[in-house]
Design goal:
Length: 1321
């Protein structure tokens, strides 16, 4: 009988033992499986009875089989299947054959089977196993297991059915065996089943993953039974084992773990209080196991949230409290709290409650706001981003909006968008970390919709400043935030800030920024104007029912007629600081054919409706002006939309404005009002003429000729406003080109009227000069001051002067459009004016002499003559060569700010046309950077910056050093321009400039002439001039200004240049001082040395010596790159820093310290502060650095400790001094608390903090001792030592000493080693 044979073979095999023969285990496993497949209960009972006495040997054999590693674990998993089949067989004595060791082997076989080896390893193992097979039945057994010789890879492959059968039988065995007596087996089973979802990654095509997860869930669920021990302990073990799955990325295993915890365990926990505690603690456990890197941390946060969502309300509330406490813990907990808060508020119900203070959502919001000021930059950035997310989520309904406004401090009583986050945003928008600035701007964008765009003016200004940030991402975020505010709110403040910040981005170096600027301008300006113009009634302005004839009422009606703040928008477009960028944007949009005709039609409609509304009120037309900026924008867009502008419209308004020319408003208006209207009309006429010029090709021939004649007549009257002259001249030239048939004919026409105008202008100028000279020699009786004759004479003289000035200006305009014009008669006249008052005139007999100084008699003509002469010199190089020295001289000595400004413009134009001739005068031009007038300084800075960018001027000589003063200019506008120049342009164009000129800048800014590159001992005048470009003095204000300049330069340097600058400072400043080349007794020398100490100690020049990069640095980094190369470069720099510190810095500091101590110099303290900062990172390596001089090492360490102790006592004393003071209602602050607060604010390193606390304790003890003594003495002070009864000291001679102790005693006490006492300061 076959069963009998199998039974005998199994018993014989067990009794004989198999050793290491793998064929033995194959035979044993196959025989057992064959035996168990029989249905004969008698055979099985005989088998159980025969095998029970040798159960230990049986289990040992099967454990060895299940531990087998051959054939990719196929033998082991087959043995496991046979073993489980035995336990589940009929009438099997389970506890006889059950063994914890066997269970461990079974679990190991499952893990090994899922960890599939490579095919070549599997083939090698199978071959080795086949070689070992021998004896009876080997081929048959191998064939039964599917591993016979000559089998293909499919047959030895992965068998999913076998794995599922093993897992299914394992689950069934758990119903028979209770594992409460086998805790190790239970733990191993939990760990193995929890690992199974992660193992079959290579078998994804062979496995039904859903069925596998179902089986694993069934096994783990079966373990959550009281038969297997305490359910809470089992649940805790399962949760702990599933933690890796919960924290992993997107994977089916993660979904399985989340589903099992949230459904199975949570379901059981509802009726089990102990299990409920385990569930409530699981999210807290996951918090502590969460990784630090950003992406894995995000997955951990999602898993925690899913579990919390499945918890009951009271458990959720407890976890929320735990999260808020996390916000005050270590950095890894704080950032997790910051990431969890927005998800909790968006997932859990009703976070804001009724808006009362006890709402958990408000507590989370407050914790998030606090983390926005965290010391860790990464946490600050994440907190700001998440706060923005919370604001966006809670702004969905009106109730939440109101509660959120109150929580953030934006209540209805506060105006202009001021709240508790206002100061926070001010600081974070200018944070040193780019990610923080970007996150702050994102928060501003979200708050815009909450507040309707009504921000505090300081926040708007900060956003405008961010538009000039060095990083592209920050500039884009700033434009987005400011544009969102402008999109929602049309308030004048928002409009003004947007127009002064965003349009200028059209000049950005990045093409993407230019395109973004064009897009938002097109959307928020042109489209808004188009909508407003097209919304107007084509038949005329409809009057409001309750209209008023007053000017204020009319203004209100006009504003109501044009919605969306269009009037404010148009008015700001023509602002002198905005108009250049508007022209550039319109030009760029026009070239790309993005300007639509509806823009021009809308502007015409706005002008027409404004006029119609004015006339409907029966107001005089000569007082009407179009909305400010409308004509300006129309003149810019009409270049590319000439067919969209109607000639009848232009002709009508030209006649209207021409009729009002020079008349001014009627009535009894004041002179200031008339001046305002005249200036407005002049500006409108200029833009109208520009528009006519743009559409001239579309004009009919006859109207164009009539207009040209009219323009020429107006030019020849020389009574136009200076702003109109250029427009008239350019328009006339354009019309002449239109009228002529060929280019040659147009040149003849232009030449004809230009020479005609120049002739008349020269006669007007000559006549005025003769009149002034003759009046100066007149012996007529002067008119009485204030009489009618005096007023009449003053009016006539003023008109003549105005006409002469306009004539001179017209000459310059004509020369610009026609450079080949004959100016032989004009130049002598202008020379007479600009040299009036000089006795060395060479044209004495040939020209009418101005025997009076026209600079004093007629300042406008004098200034205008210089400007006109500059325009003529631009057209005539020979004349420029003669007059450029005169321009430089006048620029240096002129006391008129307007003239200096014009001369700076002229000199920079000369630099473009005659670069070689103007190069020697660059230092005189740069002197205007320190001009008393802000406009002149700003103009000089802008013009020189443009020349430098275009390489007309080089960064050499004093130019760079003089530009440094603009970084600390009194004007904020100039400071912003300088920051942008040094931070953006120079960093790219001249990256070595800051490094090469840094040391020299220290000497120049301190006006110290000891430096070899700055020494000029034979010129006192040179030193006097250089003082204007120095910031002398040791006062705090001067030092802070110089330090601001140094920091700006250090920020432009690469790490290797910072290292070289460190070495140069030591060699050229510190070594020079120790060698006597730098006089440290001189005030300027002391300033240089003190600046060097501050620079060496500042954080901008210090390089990090940490061995590895922190996670914060990795996540905060904005620019990508090769991390390995960066790390290698960082290590090389660190080693170089250490080498330089050892070889150069320490010896120099030692010599310099000795010198300063010998002279009792106050700079010793600065030296010790600097040395302490430098050696702070090398406290453990000081002994290595000073191995050659142990005594010096001890002195340095002692000095550093003494300095730190003194500083700690100073902080503690401040805390003690501030301890008793308290304000109304506030709890009194103890000295220890005050000292702790001082240490938290001012102390960075832990060593200093401990010393502060120790010193604070000593101070408190001393204060308590004095208090006790006062109480003992009844309030009286402690008597002096001389008044007390004390033992007398015996003298060395045996007698008593009265009075003071002997000198020997004092000397012996003095020589005793002293220690830090409590009273030492």
């Amino acid at each position: 009988m076959d069963e009998e044979i199998l039974l005998a073979r199994i018993i014989a095999g067990i009794e004989g033992g198999g050793g290491d023969d793998e064929s033995y285990y194959h035979e044993l496993t196959a025989d057992l499986k064959s035996l168990l497949e029989t249905d004969d209960d008698e055979i099985l009972n005989r088998f159980y009875g025969s095998i029970s006495p040798v159960a230990s040997s049986f289990l040992r054999c099967f454990s060895a089989a299940m531990d087998s590693t051959v054939e990719s674990g196929r033998l082991a998993i087959s043995a496991s299947d046979a073993y489980l089949s035995l336990l589940l067989s009929t009438n099997c004595p389970v506890f006889t054959f059950f063994s914890p060791v066997a269970i461990l082997s079974l679990l190991g076989s499952i893990r090994r089977y899922l960890k599939r080896r490579h095919r070549e390893d599997s083939g090698a193992s199978a071959s080795q196993g086949n070689k070992k097979k021998r004896g009876r039945g080997s081929k048959n057994n191998a064939r039964n297991l599917g591993h016979g010789d000559g089998e293909d890879t499919e047959e030895v492959g992965f068998d999913a059915k076998l794995l599922f059968r093993v897992l299914e039988r394992l689950g069934s065995v758990l119903n028979l065996v209770h594992l409460d007596r086998f805790p190790d087996s239970l733990k191993s089973l939990v760990q193995t089943v929890s690992e199974i979802p992660l193992l079959p990654l290579e078998h994804s095509g062979d496995l039904n993953f859903d069925r596998l997860m179902e089986m694993c869930g069934r096994i783990l669920g079966g373990l959550l039974n009281s038969d297997h021990g305490d359910m809470s302990l089992t649940a805790a073990e399962i949760s702990k084992s599933l933690t890796p799955l919960l924290l992993m990325g997107k994977h089916q295993a993660r979904s399985f773990a989340l589903g099992f915890v949230s459904r199975k365990i949570m379901g059981l926990a509802k009726d089990n209080s102990e299990l409920k505690k385990v569930v409530s603690n699981l999210p807290k456990f996951l918090v502590h196991k969460a990784p630090e890197k950003a992406e894995p941390r995000g997955y951990a946060v999602e898993a925690i949230l899913e579990i919390v969502k499945a918890m009951e309300v009271e458990d959720q509330s407890e976890f929320v409290d735990f999260v808020m406490k996390m916000g005050q813990g270590k950095s890894n907990l704080r950032i997790l709290a910051v990431d969890l808060i927005p998800l909790l508020m968006s997932s859990l119900g009703n976070p804001l409650g009724n808006g009362e203070g006890d709402s958990w959502g408000l507590g989370c919001l407050d914790a998030l706001v606090k983390r926005c000021s965290d010391s860790n930059a990464l946490i600050r950035a994440r907190a700001l981003c998440n706060l923005a997310q919370v604001v966006g989520f809670l702004s969905g309904d009106e109730r939440s909006r109101l509660i959120l406004k109150q929580a953030l401090g934006f209540s209805s009583e506060l105006s202009e968008g001021k709240g508790i986050v206002t100061d926070l945003l001010k600081k974070r928008c200018v944070d040193e970390k780019a990610a923080v600035r970007r996150a702050a701007l994102l928060l501003v964008t979200k708050l815009t919709s909450l507040l309707g765009g009504c921000f505090d003016a300081s926040i708007l200004k900060t956003m405008g400043t961010s538009c000039s940030d060095p990083l592209i991402s920050i500039r884009k975020a700033a434009i987005s935030a400011l544009s969102e505010a402008f999109r929602i709110c049309t308030d004048e403040t928002v409009t003004t800030e947007w127009l002064h910040s965003v349009p200028r981005m059209i000049m950005d170096n990045e093409t993407s920024m230019q395109e973004e600027c064009e897009n938002v301008f097109h959307e928020l300006v042109l489209e808004r104007i188009s909508r407003a113009g097209n919304a107007l009634s084509p038949d005329g302005a409809s009057l409001p029912k309750n209209w008023s004839s007053s000017s204020k009422g009319l203004d209100r009606d006009i504003e109501a007629l044009f919605p969306e703040g269009v009037l404010v928008l148009l008015k700001e477009l023509c602002n002198s600081e905005v108009s250049p960028w508007v022209k550039k944007i319109c030009g760029s949009l026009g070239k790309k054919k993005r300007l639509k005709p509806r823009v021009a039609l809308a502007l015409q409609s706005i002008i027409k409706q404004s006029e119609s509304l004015w006339l409907s009120r029966s107001m005089p037309i000569n007082k009407w002006t179009a909305p400010a900026g409308a004509w300006f924008l129309l003149s810019e867009v009409s270049v590319y939309l000439p067919k969209s502008v109607e000639w009848e419209f232009l002709h009508h308004h030209w006649q209207l404005l021409d009729k009002n020319d020079g008349q001014g408003p009627d009535g009894q208006g004041d002179e200031q009002g008339a001046e305002c209207h005249s200036s407005t009309w002049a500006g409108d006429r200029v833009c109208l003429l520009q528009t006519i010029s743009n559409v001239s090709l579309q004009l009919p021939a006859e109207p164009a000729a009539d207009l040209a004649d009219n323009l020429l007549k107006k030019i020849e009257k020389f009574n136009l406003h200076s702003a109109e002259v250029d427009a008239h001249v350019k328009a006339l030239k354009t019309l002449c080109i239109k009228k002529a048939c060929t280019s040659g004919e147009s040149d003849i026409l232009v030449k004809k009227w230009v020479e005609q105008v120049l002739s008349k202008a020269s006669k007007v100028t000559e006549k005025y000069i003769e009149g002034v000279s003759s009046n100066n020699h007149s012996f007529a009786t002067p008119a009485t001051l204030g009489s009618r004759r005096s007023k009449r004479l003053d009016t006539a003289a003023s008109k003549k002067l105005s006409k002469a000035v306009t004539a001179a200006y017209t000459i310059g305009s004509c020369v610009i459009i026609y450079p080949s014009a004959d100016t032989t008669k004009i130049v002598p006249l202008l020379h007479t004016v600009i040299t009036s008052g000089n006795s060395d005139s060479k044209l004495k007999n040939k020209l009418p002499q101005a025997n009076v100084c026209l600079k004093q008699k007629a300042p406008p003509l004098y200034s205008q003559s210089w400007l006109t002469m500059a325009k003529i010199c631009l057209a005539d190089g020979k004349l420029a060569k003669r007059y450029i020295p005169l321009f430089a001289q006048e620029l240096e000595k002129s006391d008129c700010a307007a003239l200096r400004n014009n001369l700076v413009v002229a000199m920079t134009d000369f630099c473009v046309h005659y670069t070689a001739m103007i190069e020697c005068y660059i230092p005189k031009i740069t002197k205007r950077l320190r001009d008393p007038c802000e406009v002149v300084r700003r103009q000089t800075f802008i013009l020189l910056s443009r020349l430098l960018q275009r390489d007309y001027v080089k960064w050499r000589g004093v130019l760079f050093l003089r530009f440094l003063l603009s970084l600390v200019d009194e004007s904020e506008k100039i400071r912003r321009l300088a920051d942008f120049l040094f931070g953006n342009i120079l960093k790219v164009k001249a990256p070595l400039l800051a490094y090469n000129s840094f040391v020299e800048a220290i000497y120049v800014l301190n006006d110290c002439h000891a430096h070899t590159g700055h020494n000029n001992p034979d010129s006192k005048q040179s030193r006097t001039k250089d003082q204007a470009f120095s910031i002398r003095g040791n006062d705090e204000r001067a030092r802070s200004k110089r330090m601001q300049i140094y920091v700006t330069l250090l920020k432009q340097m690469a790490p290797e240049h910072l290292l070289a600058t460190f070495a140069k400072l030591c060699a050229e400043v510190l070594a020079a001082a120790s060698d006597g080349m730098l006089n440290i007794e001189d005030v300027t020398g002391q300033s240089v040395l003190q600046d060097a100490f501050q620079i060496l100690a500042c954080k901008e020049i210090r390089l990090s010596v940490s061995r590895g990069a922190s996670s914060e640095t990795a996540e905060m980094e904005d620019e990508g790159g090769d991390s390995n190369a960066a790390a290698a470069k960082g290590r090389a720099i660190t080693q170089a820093v250490r080498k330089g510190l050892i070889q150069n810095t320490i010896p120099i500091f030692i010599e310099l310290k000795k010198l300063l101590e010998s002279k009792n110099s106050p700079l010793t303290g600065s030296l010790m502060d600097c040395l302490r900062v430098l050696l702070k990172d090398y406290k453990n390596e000081i002994e290595e650095m000073l191995v050659a001089d142990k005594q010096l090492q001890k002195e340095l360490v002692y000095d550093m400790q003494k300095h730190d102790a003194a500083k700690a006592r100073s902080m503690a004393d401040q805390g003690v001094a501030s301890g008793p003071s308290h304000r109304n209602g506030e709890r009194e602050q103890t000295p220890a608390a005050a000292a702790a607060a001082a240490s938290e604010e001012n102390v960075r390193d832990s060593g200093m903090e401990s010393r502060v606390v120790s010193a604070a304790a000593d101070a408190v003890a001393a204060k308590a001792a004095r208090s006790v003594l006062r109480e003992v003495n009844g309030g009286a002070a402690t008597p002096p030592l001389s008044a007390m009864s004390v033992p007398k000291l015996r003298s060395s001679r045996g007698g008593h000493q009265s009075g003071r102790p002997s000198a020997d005693v004092l000397e012996s006490l003095r020589r005793r080693p002293t220690f830090m006492s409590d009273d030492e300061t």
